[in-house]
Amino acid sequence: MLKFKQYYRVKSLAEAYELNQKKSNVVLGGMLWLKLQHRTVGGVIDLTDLGLDRITETDEAFTIGAMVSLRDLEQHEGLGTYLGEALHESLRHIVGVQFRNVATVGGSIFGRFGFSDVLTLFLALDAKVKFYHAGELPLSVYASDAPLDKELKNDILEAVILPKRVEAVAYRSVRNSETDFPVLTCCGAKVNGVYRVSVGARPMRAAYTADLTGILKNGITPKTAAAFGTWVSEQLATGSNVRASADYRKKMIAVLTKRNLMDLAEQENSQDAGKQRESALDMTQKNEAGGQS
């Protein structure tokens, strides 16, 4: 059980940041993992009143506040349209709806837990994180740069920013049971013309790589998808724990990467077909207009 001496319901990010500089204070977030800890802290910082529970959309990006619940993320119409089935697939296994109603995006990202489906998803999508003091930085940097652990430990995560550069995305995970922690998570995406793959639950925190060697430069086929999956499995380290061995995870990285890539190819083909239909329709309308004139 978590015990605390003070409760602070802050009214500004500046106040939250100042209070968080004291080592004995902690940010509450969704209060799911913290309450399982057996320790006493000086004070808990509640961000409820700071308006960080909103998702805003512009022509350039989605900005997802740190206090947005995973359920609100899951049900957001704009994100659902933009990311398709991958958004739902990355969230539906996380314990249950009651849990997702409380768990926050900020808690999932800030903790950089190895089992985080949310981190795996946004890492592949080349998202950014916005901190009160440090400002914006790529999620890939925050997830992998060990020196930042100390620098940002007492900062306040404001939001996750998803630039609208995603062309296709697919998500898969392996679990021993439906709502258990994942054995492995894998997201494939095409972002701004580049194929990216992120893998989590290795069991270390999620990491990503991209098509640096040009395996997919001539397009995705079953053969190139398998070759890229093998290459990714060789690039990313894995370990063993009670859920699976390192060797099993290596093999599953290759399998899930290939399957995600084939999904991306299907999405791209569908998009191309849609563009061709629109082009044909435009041409027909122009011809009809010319005939009438």
Explain this structure to me?
41% of the residues lie in helices and 25% in strands. By secondary structure, it is α+β, with helices and mostly antiparallel strands. The strands form 3 sheets. A 5-stranded antiparallel β-sheet has the order 4-5-8-6-7.
Features:
single chain, 293 residues, alpha+beta, five-stranded antiparallel β-sheet, four-stranded antiparallel β-sheet, 11 helices, 12 strands, 41% helix
* Relative strand content: 15-25%
- Helix/strand/pairing category: alpha+beta
User: Assembly state here?
Assistant: single chain
Helical segment tally? 11
Order of helices and strands: EHEEEEHHHHHHEEHHEEEEEHH
Q: What is the mean pLDDT? A: 90
Main β-sheet: number of strands, strand sense, barrel status?
A: 5 strands, antiparallel
- Identify the strand order in the major beta sheet: 4-5-8-6-7
Q: Work out the helicity level.
A: 40-55%
- Give the terminus-to-terminus CA distance: 79 Å
Task: Set out the fold topology.
Elements: E1 2-9, H1 13-20, E2 25-27, E3 39-46, E4 55-57, E5 61-65, H2 70-75, H3 77-83, H4 85-91, H5 97-100, H6 105-111, H7 117-124, E6 128-131, E7 135-138, H8 139-144, H9 147-152, E8 157-163, E9 166-175, E10 182-191, E11 194-200, E12 207-210, H10 222-235, H11 246-292
Helix pairs in contact: 10-11
Summarize the structure.
With 293 residues, the chain is α+β, with helices and mostly antiparallel strands.
